[in-house]
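Risk register update: the risk of archive-format incompatibility is retired. Evidence:
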Amino acid sequence: MATYSVADAKSGLPKLIDRALQGDEVIISRHGKAVAELRALAAGAHGAAPASYAWLKARRQGRTAVDVTSVELLNELYNE
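Archived output:
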């Protein structure tokens, strides 16, 4: 486990990210007290976007159209 001050982390963030990606535990401290931990995301956590986009696109295309615009809807809400 490596501990870095906020100032060191600010000036060397890319290096700290690389260390976290390699599996190292990176702790950031302020005034000698640990305040943050930098670690890599779990495998696959950041790779889900294309599947999520395809699901969202299919869901959007399957919905029925609404005849009221958002402006008209807000006008109705405010007029009541």
